[in-house]
Amino acid sequence: MFRRKRARNSSQGDAESRESGHHGENQPPDPGPPADPLDLRLNEPDDTPIHLTMDATIRMRDELAEAERRLGADHEDVLLLRHNYAFTLSVWSAAAPPGDTYMQDHAIPLLLENLTHQSAALGPHARDTLVTLQLIGSAHLSAGRPAEAVPYLEQALEGSESGPDRDAERTLTWREKLSDAYAAAGGTDRAIALLEETVADSRHLLPPGSEQLEARKQKLFKAYHTAGGRLPDATALCREIASDKERFYGPDHLDTYIWWDNLAHLHHDARDLDAAVACYERVIGGFERIHGADSEEIAYRYHNLAIAHLEAGRPERALPYLKASLAAREHALGPDHAGTLDALIALISGYDQARRIDEAIAATERLITDLLRTGGPTHPKLPEVRTYLDRLREALAEDRPAG
Known about the structure:
Layout: H1 10-20, H2 54-71, H3 76-92, H4 102-122, H5 127-142, H6 146-162, H7 168-184, H8 188-205, H9 211-226, H10 231-249, H11 254-269, H12 273-291, H13 296-311, H14 315-333, H15 338-353, H16 357-375, H17 382-399
Helix pairs in contact: 2-3, 3-4, 4-5, 5-6, 6-7, 7-8, 8-9, 9-10, 10-11, 11-12, 12-13, 13-14, 14-15, 15-16, 16-17
């Protein structure tokens, strides 16, 4: 009881929107032979606004059916209409309830049909083929099928890295998406390795402090933090991110303090208590200025600093912060809140460890009064607390010389 406690990736969605080359409102073209070589230029920017309505989506479906009848399934204009219709279905899936894969399940067969024609006409490494592979993998991933997504995303990434139309920024985006799929499929080590490559290359390609670079660093930090045995990697990257925040936002920005707080927790987990204390103290100074000394946010940080001192065997240094945490929670949450009672329990423990038994007894008696007020005489914690109070009184009697 004394221990501290992208909706979809927007950049990927934007990239796929640019790749879609959406022309859903166009009338089916006149019959004509397919271009040679076939190249839909799917990832060229198109500034035409997309009006996503159900009527427009149904029109796209009907236009596709008519074009297939007149031009054949493998005509380049039919491939484009099919691509746009499948992409629109994927976009619609964002509005579906959790677990509803209806739209993606209808989009994937359309994309697979395009993939068959593109692979034969253009080859496996052509830009349009790779875009279709990427969209199929992304559709499976968003539908909750990461294991099925991985082969398509791997093929897309391999082609992007080695094909004639190499695009460094696109490769980074696709590698990150493949990392997401591996992570969702339980392939933690492979996911982290891909994300490490993505961050390393992003440092060379993107300007320092760019939003996308910082987002990828933070994703890698989270992956390190949740993976067993990667605490040193998480700590080093957290320190880098905290320094980035300080350099770009200033030492007194809230984001800077939040990342120093993250670093404090990592030091605490590594049992480097002096380093944790130094970080906690810096964070507390900032949070006091930003939130005030009586806020719930600062109470949490007071508590963490106190626990670090207690675990380092310094109860006297912990007590002021335990008292401050209790006062802040009383002010922010009220005297009967569970968080306030937890802070009182932590203060009792601090008094006990400091051998300030009189104060521990007084605080425990207060706790009993609070439990009776909030839960009545049948409160489930009362027997335990009363037993603890008896032990404190016995310890006090033993400490006092016989008179």
